[in-house]
Every structure is written in C-alpha cells, then in structure tokens.
C-alpha cells in the first residue's frame, strides 16, 4: 500500500516491560516512538503546577488541548521532556505523577483532547506506539498489536529496581499496592479501559528476558511486514 505508515501497537499495564521493549524495537527498526504514557504524565505535571487535581475536569480538558509538551530525544534512546518550556524529565517518572496521570487518563474529554496529538506521531517509515489503548482506540488499524503482561509482583520488583537505578529508594510492599490500585483503575474505567485488542498477541513477560520479548515482537513484525 503506498503511503501506508505501519504501526506497532504495544499495550499493557505499567511495569510489563513496554518501555524497554519499545525502545529496543525502535532502535532495530529506525521507526518513530510514541510514549503515550509520557503525554498523560506531562499533563499531570502541568496540572499539578497549576494546582489542578483530577476533579477539575473542564480545566484539565482545556489544559490537555493546549498542553505545551516537547519530547527531545537524547543519545541512546533516551528522551528529555519539557512542559511549558521547563525540563520535567525527573518529575515525570515519580510515582505521584503516575498516579495523577492515571486519574486524569480516566476522563473521556481529556482522552479525546489528546487523541490527535498521539496520531500525529505516525510518520514514515513507521511508528512504535507504547500505551494502554494503542491497539484499541488510537491506532485500531495498527499492523501488529502486542499486549504485554507480567505478574504484579514481578512488575513491582522491576519498578523497585528502576527506581533504585535512579537513586530513589522505593518500598516494595508500597509499590505493589500502588501497582494493584493503578491496574484496577486503568482496567475498570469506562473510557478506553486497559484491555487487549481482540487481534492482539498476548505475551506474558514474567520470567522472560528483555531480549526474548524483543525477538518475539521483531519476528511478529517481520512476518507481517516482511521487514
Ligand atoms: O505507562 P505510564 O506508567 O507512563 O502511564 C501513566 C498513566 O497514564 C497510566 O496509569 C495510565 C495512563 N495511560 C493511559 O491511560 N493511556 C495510555 N495510552 C497511556 C497511559
């Protein structure tokens, strides 16, 4: 199909390994990368700066429409994120930002306001889209859809390790509780709940190495698109 820009949609709960897998696939393919969670997190940071909480629906929707967020790739697949021109890369990854992001992400108008912004990432030669509703809502026509999962315990351990690498001392039982709460909210919300697309390939990454998951995703892409 001429003009067709292929999309790989990678969905699943936090800590399932989406970010790491997507960055590896992006490096291997040279495609663009959409970290949609970072957009919801950027909105949460912008909201917190304005003293807005998840109850401020209308103001949040307005903010989502006008959100000034800039993703600046740095070497080795990393990214700096600027909100209102201010570097908020560190704040973006904090648990409180993730929690507020999960709450604002439950608002239908906010999701709609962010839809086109996400679709605009689809540019040649292709897009790796990381999120919760990439294969169901944002790119329902994605060429390959993958749904990554892992047990809550494994995801809490991974988050704990990730935080440690960033010099933050997380508490494992607290992380597990927060993961369970966020899963519940993301899964049961009425708007774009976290569910696999019917045509998604399910991969449980518990006990699997990153390389094994990346290989599996790459072979799905190669079979489908003859890369
Ligand atoms: O993947 P993450 O932890 O950076 O995402 C933060 C929150 O944003 C997550 O709790 C749910 C929400 N989110 C969403 O609702 N839809 C997406 N496509 C991506 C993230």
Radius of gyration: 17 Å
**Percent of residues in helical segments?**
40-55%
Number of domains: 1
Number of strands: 8
The CATH homologous superfamily corresponds to P-loop containing nucleotide triphosphate hydrolases
Number of helices: 10
Low-confidence stretches: none
Pattern of helices and strands: EHEHHEEEHHHEHEHHEH
State the name of the first-level CATH class: Alpha Beta
Distance between the termini: 14 Å
Beta fraction = 15-25%
Task: Report mean pLDDT, rounded to a whole number.
Answer: 93
Major beta sheet summary: 5 strands, parallel
Q: Could you list some keywords that capture this structure?
A:
5-stranded parallel sheet, alpha/beta, 3-stranded antiparallel sheet, single chain, 227 residues, binds 2'-deoxycytidine-5'-monophosphate, Rossmann fold
Question: How do the strands and helices of this protein lay out in sequence?
Answer:
Layout: E1 7-11, H1 18-29, E2 32-35, H2 36-49, H3 57-66, E3 69-73, E4 79-83, E5 86-87, H4 89-92, H5 95-104, H6 108-119, E6 127-131, H7 134-138, E7 144-149, H8 152-165, H9 172-188, E8 201-204, H10 210-225
Parallel strand pairs: 1-6, 1-7, 2-6, 7-8
Antiparallel strand pairs: 3-4, 4-5
Helix pairs in contact: 1-10, 2-5, 3-6, 8-9
The protein binds 2'-deoxycytidine-5'-monophosphate.
2'-deoxycytidine-5'-monophosphate binds next to α2, α5 and α9.
Quick recap:
The protein has about 230 residues and is α/β, with parallel strands linked by helices.
Structure explained in plain terms:
The protein has 227 residues and is α/β, with parallel strands linked by helices. It has a single domain, classed as P-loop containing nucleotide triphosphate hydrolases (Rossmann fold), CATH 3.40.50. Helix content is 50%, strand content 16%. The chain has ten helices and eight strands. The strands form two sheets. It has a five-stranded parallel β-sheet. It has a three-stranded antiparallel β-sheet with strand order 3-4-5. Strand 4 and strand 5 form a beta hairpin. Helix 3 runs parallel beside helix 6 (108-119) and helix 8 crosses helix 9 (172-188). The longest helix has 17 residues, at 172-188. The chain starts with 6 loop residues before the first strand and ends with a helix. The model has no long low-confidence stretch (mean pLDDT 93). Residues 14, 36-37, 40-41, 98, 101-102, 105, 131-133, 182, 186 line the site of 2'-deoxycytidine-5'-monophosphate.
């Amino acid at each position: 199909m001429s003009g067709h820009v292929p999309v790989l949609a990678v969905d699943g709960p936090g800590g399932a390994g989406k970010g790491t897998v997507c960055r590896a696939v992006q490096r291997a393919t040279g495609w663009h990368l959409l970290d949609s969670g970072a957009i919801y997190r950027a909105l949460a940071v912008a909201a917190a700066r304005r003293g807005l909480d998840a109850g401020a629906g209308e103001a949040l929707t307005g903010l989502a429409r006008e959100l000034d967020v800039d993703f600046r790739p740095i070497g080795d697949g990393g990214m700096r994120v600027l909100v209102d021109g201010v570097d908020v890369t560190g704040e973006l990854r904090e648990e409180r930002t993730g929690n507020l992001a999960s709450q604002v992400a439950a608002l239908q108008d906010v999701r709609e306001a962010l839809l086109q912004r996400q679709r605009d990432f689809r540019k040649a030669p292709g897009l790796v889209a990381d999120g919760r509703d990439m294969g169901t809502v944002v790119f329902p026509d994605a060429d390959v859809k993958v749904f990554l999962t892992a047990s809550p315990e494994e995801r809490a351990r991974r988050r704990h390790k990730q935080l440690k690498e960033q010099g933050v001392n997380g508490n494992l039982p607290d992380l597990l509780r927060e993961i369970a709460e966020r899963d519940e909210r993301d899964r049961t919300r009425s708007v774009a709940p976290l569910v696999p697309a019917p045509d998604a390939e399910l991969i449980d990454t518990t006990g699997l190495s990153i390389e094994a998951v990346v290989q599996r995703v790459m072979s799905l892409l190669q079979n489908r698109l003859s890369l």
